[in-house]
Each structure stands twice: as C-alpha cells, then as structure tokens.
Write a structure and sequence with these properties.
globular; two-stranded antiparallel sheet; homodimer
Chain lengths: 370, 370
C-alpha cells in the first residue's frame, strides 16, 4: 500500500472544498518506459485499493479482484501496470469520515463532505498525474466502479484509451435508490448512530449496518442463485422450530452472518456517502436526460461493456442503454451479455465466458500499446 | 364488525394450544335460505376483516377490497354472502399479541404462539361452523390470503366449491424469506422492541417497523411502476442538495411516509407472526416436495388462479406452479395472467381485465348455487 497526499483542495460538486487529502493505492506490474500501459481499477461499495494479491503479513487478505488481475490473468500484470485506488470518503485508508476534520480536531463523522462519482474521478486524476501518467491504457470498474469508469471517459476522454464498464448502469433506477434509502434509514435511525458522531461514544450503529448489508446481499444475488444455494432448507433441522426470532431457514443464517461481518469492519458514514454517490450519478441529467448527448463527450474512447443475464440490480437492459448511447455517437464499443446464474455478484466471480471476454479485450488493448 | 369467541382451544401446528380465542369478522349481503352462497375472503399481511364498505362513524375507513366486493361489483354482495375475517395474531381485533395472556395477566407480546396459515384456516372453519355454513360457495384471497384459500381447498375440500387464488404462490421463494428476515431483524434489533414486551415500556419499535414497511413497499411495486411514479425526480428541487440524511429523491419521501404511517398503526409482534406464517406455508413439504401430490387432497374443488405480469414478489411463474399441480390432478382450473404494470399491488387495484375475469368467474359460481 502506498499513499499520496494532495495539498490543493478539491472542489467538489456540492460546492464544498476538501483538502489536503490523502489517497491510498496499490500498484501491480511495471509501468513501461513509454508510460502507456497503466490500467486504473475503480472499486465498488465495500472494496478498496487492495485489488489483487496477498499481503505477506496477512495472507488471507486476498485482493477483491484477484481472480481477474495478476500475472497471466485476464488483466495481465506482466503486461500492464495496474493501479487500485481507494476513494475519498472510504474507511480503508483514503481521507474519510473516520479521519480528523481539521476545522474541529475531531473525526469528520457525518460532516464529511458529500462526494460524487465525478469527485472521485477528479481525485483519481490527480493521482494519475502524481504517478506521471498522461493517458491510461484503460480504466476499468464493476458496478459503482463501472460508473467511475464511465465518468473518466466523459470527463477525460483524452486521458483514456479504453473504458471497461462491467455490471453497471448509466444511473440508478428508482428501485435502486429505494433500496439505498432503506439501508440508510436503518443506519441513521439506529440509536448508536448519534447523528453520525458515534466514534466519540465508543459505539457503532451495528444494527443499522447489519440490516443495510442484508438488504445489499439480497440485491447482489439472483433469486435463482439464492434458491440453488439455500432453497427452503431449515438450519440444522428437518422440521420448523416455530419461532419468529430464532434462525429457521439457512438463508437467514447466511444473511445474519454477512450482516454481522460487515458491521464489524465497515464504517456507517462511509456507507451513507457511497450509497449517495451511487444515487447521484446520472451523466445524462446535465444533457436534458439524453445519455447519447452525454456520451458525445467521450470522443475517441473505446468501450467494452459487460452485463450478466441474472443481474437484477443492474440488469443487462441498463448496460444496453450505455451501448445504445455509444452507438448513437458512432463510438467503438464491444458488448458482452454473459449468461451467468449468480446475479450482480457475477462480476466478482471467475466465470470462464466472462473472463474469456475480458482476456480477449485486454489482449487487444495490449496490442495497441505504444 | 361482529365477534365470535370459541372456548375449545385450537391445536396449533407448533404443538401449542390457543384458547379461548375470539375472531372478529364482517359480513356483506344475505345468506340465502339454502346457506349455499357464502364466500370467505382471507386477508394478507396488513389487512383485516374490513373487506368492503365504509363505517358510518369513520367514512374514510374504506374496506381494503372495496373495489372488488359490494353490490353490483365483481364479487356481488347482492348475490353472495361475503365474510371477511381477521386472523389470529393480528392487531385488528382477533386474539393477538396485544391481548392478555391468561397465563400471566399481561399482554402476550412475543409470547403469542406462532400461528400458521393452516392454523388460521382451522380457526376460520370454526367461524364458518358458527355461522351455520356447511360449504362455502368460494374461498378467495390475494397474496398471503391466496395461501389461506389454498390451505382451505387442501384441508377441507368438501367444504369449498371454488377456490380463488390471486397473486399468490405455493410457498415463498428463498428471496421472499430473505426479505422477511431482514424486516424481522430490523424490528427485533430495535432497542424499543424490548424482546417483544414493549407495551409495558410505553413504546413501539417504530424504527424497525418503518424499515420493514419500506422494504415491503419496494417488493409490492414493480420496478417500472416505481420508475413511472417517481423516476429520479428530486423532492421539491431541480438540483441535488448533497445530503446523505435529508430527503433528496421523491421515492425517498414516499417510502418514509409509508414507513411512518405503518409504524403508527401496526403491531410489531403481529408483523413477526404474519411474516413467519408466510415463510412456513409449504403444502408440498409433507408430500416429499411434490405440489401435485399435495393437491391430490383438493379433490372436487374448482380453481381460479390469477397472476400479474409485473409482480416480482409472487411472479406468474409461481402461480403456474399451482396451475400445473392442479392440471396434474385433472382438477378444474382457470388461469388468468393479467398484463398489469403495478407489480404485486395490482391485486388490490381496479384493473378492467382483472376485474372482468373475477366478475365472469363469480357469475359462474353464482350460476351453480343451489
């Protein structure tokens, strides 16, 4: 893990300024002499800069996209210089709500400024400058990471050769926003939230975080994948125990476990910030709702868009909206709709057809390197 | 509203006994001389015995299925004697968690016995006895009510001429159970739940109830219906306000309002009981998982099954499972899949094609009356 601190304040979409700020990041592979082989990987809700590999002192801590990124892998770090960066507002090292607000000397908490996908990209661009990279061979992300990849192509088309958007959408649907809002309400109304200043009370709003994560997991999995994994099986029993509060079904045990785990490591204020960044992302809005007009800004960037058949969080229809906007602009775009059973989570899994598409695309990107 | 008290205890599926118990109910229309024109309407999660009409002293309190049930309506109370009954465990009058536990002299709270769909039907059957009705012209229900209608046909086929199952399923999917579980965890982990004995503390677990209801509303509406109703419109503004806690999008205002309203009138222990009744319903389980074998018990009953194209809570595929099990048994079954945009909520709405199907079916039932 490395860190870079930027003294000049960042002007945020909200009108607020943030700075100095620090970004933590990791890199894999070697930057070539022409500085032309850099690929930026943007993370989604609960991930970080730790994209690939294992730490010597924590060998169980495998990078979140390690099946895709590494030597000989579809995004081959023998050929590319891959950068994983943690976003502003996170709880994994970059400047965020758990850090000290210079104005008060206390943790930012809920006073951390609201950051948008575009703000993250602006911060990332400074990191790319700092690394001496003028133009990225590719920017890549899944889900919320795919929104950052889109925002890169829209804000800095001259700095991005290829944009790879996986399991993403051009904006959240009303239902997506609704699920985010329920999760936020669960957190904010937890008495241990203390208006976002729970650090001073030595507690975390664990109840709210658990509920938020349980909702999340339902939307990450397909109905069929849940059915196949848990069905209606009882937890350690053949017959119902007739209880409203005990665990009865295996799926309940799974969800409670996921909730408990999440509440143990994730920051509640970060959760609020990141879900809001998701809600706000909507590049078409500044163009009268026309995504095609928005994508006119991405001139010269080549795209790969990937979706998964059973993803009901960001369904293939949402990816096709992006593809259509690109086609309307006569952009170069490849589109793959992968028939996979795992729902939204598929983008993190090692599916042969999916990884085959990614490998082929990055081979093409490598072939174009200066 | 009328009430009937039953002295003999009810033997519940869980092995517990409940009694004496009281059911509150309403009737509409006149029982004919042959006592052959009775139709029982079973309610879903948050409804009650108040199926149709308005109360003289509360004219805004319209019955929950008033668009379907009344003089000249699809279920015509000029021809049928319609019975609406409130289920055990409810908070609308029948014996439930807010009532006194005779063993303690305190409200039952979380100690109210777990009741199943089959238990409800057993209790309802006694009410039908009490009303002097041997055989129902029809039993009718939507969603969870449709599960009760199914359980009637399976437990008492000789007492049911027609079974009308609307927007229902032969059992909850894993995803359905998962949503119920998240809602329950939100309630149970609310500090104001007090292990289900919050009445004594003069509080209600309003935070949990709000979250539960918000989740519910997302699953009742189709993605498209939410999109059409709210889209991504901001609440009273053209631009985002950049806040994680304030209402930004209209859909958030809607959900918060629904949650607030629900927390003001619904009992948390009832919510737990009713969602568990949903979870447990699975008539195929006692038949090695074969719904067809289960439905062999419903000999002689005629069925109407109705589903709605955009219902993702209980999709048309779930209704087709019921239809297939009936066809496998050479039962008489009509099936209508209504193309309607409103999702699960469609079963409560006045849709011309839907109500046309219901009217035609009940005319057929009326034509068969003795």
């Amino acid at each position: 893990m490395q860190r870079a601190t930027f003294e000049a304040p960042l002007h945020l979409r909200s009108g607020a300024q943030l700075g100095p700020y620090t970004l933590v990041y990791e890199t894999y592979g070697q930057l070539n002499a022409a500085r032309s082989n850099a690929v930026l990987v943007c993370h989604a809700l609960n991930a970080s800069h730790h994209v690939a590999g294992r730490y010597a002192d924590a060998p169980d801590n495998v990078g979140w996209w390690d099946n895709l990124v590494g030597p000989g892998k579809p995004l081959d770090t023998d050929r590319f210089f891959v950068i994983g960066v943690n976003n502003l507002g996170s709880c994994f090292g970059s400047t965020g709500p758990t850090h000290t607000n210079p104005a008060t000397g206390q943790p930012w908490g809920a006073d951390f400024p609201v950051v948008t996908v575009e703000d993250w990209v602006a911060a990332q661009a400074r990191l790319i400058d700092h690394l001496g990279i003028t133009r990225l061979a590719a920017v890549l992300g899944g889900s919320l990471g795919g929104m950052q990849a889109q925002a890169w192509a829209l804000a800095h088309p001259e700095r991005v050769a290829h944009c790879v958007v996986v399991a993403s959408a051009p904006h959240l649907s009303t239902q997506n926003i609704a699920f985010n809002e329920v999760a936020r309400r669960a957190i904010v109304t937890d008495p241990d939230f203390h208006d976002g200043h729970f650090y001073a009370h030595g507690v975390v709003p664990a109840r709210g975080l658990r509920v938020a994560r349980m909702i999340g997991h339902i939307t990450y999995l397909s109905d069929d994948a849940m059915e196949a994994k848990f069905g209606r099986a009882f937890q350690g029993a053949q017959e119902p125990g007739y209880s409203t509060q005990n665990i009865e079904f295996q799926v309940e045990s799974y969800l409670r476990h996921q909730g408990e785990k999440f509440a143990g490591y994730f920051d509640a204020n970060t959760y609020l910030l990141i879900t809001r960044a998701l809600d706000y992302f909507d590049p078409a809005r500044a163009h009268g709702g026309s995504l095609a007009r928005a994508y006119a800004q991405a001139r010269g960037v080549e795209f790969l868009v990937v979706s998964f058949s059973t993803d009901w969080r960001f369904s293939p229809l949402r990816s096709r909206e992006i593809v259509k906007a690109l086609v309307d602009n006569h952009a170069r775009v490849s589109y793959a709709e992968i028939d996979a059973p795992h729902g939204h989570d598929a983008f993190l899994l090692d599916d042969a057809r999916y990884h085959g598409v990614m490998r082929a695309y990055f081979e093409r990107v490598a072939g174009q390197l200066a």
